[in-house]
Amino acid sequence: MGCEQWREVLSAQLDGEETAEERAAGQRHLDGCAECRAWFTVAAGVTRRVRTRLVTEPPDRTDAILAAAVPPARRSRWRRRLGAGR
Predict the structure, then answer these.
(1) What are the CA-CA distances from residue 57 to residues 1, 53, 63, 66 (Å)?
(2) Does the pTM of the predicted model rise above 0.70?
């Protein structure tokens, strides 16, 4: 298996989706592959930052959006009476 496939296994490990066998095999690969070790260190840092990032509720902009909405054009009274302009 090449490094690209190992990185998929290691990515699953970071997401908690690996089996015990995959974890052990991934660790053996990391022990012998400096490039994947470096990749794993960076990927683990990104995962950690994403998981610990504070999520804030976005402001409610409903009133502003509705206030800015253009009302539908009104048909003139004489056109409504004639049934025109539908």
Answers:
(1) 43, 13, 16, 20
(2) no
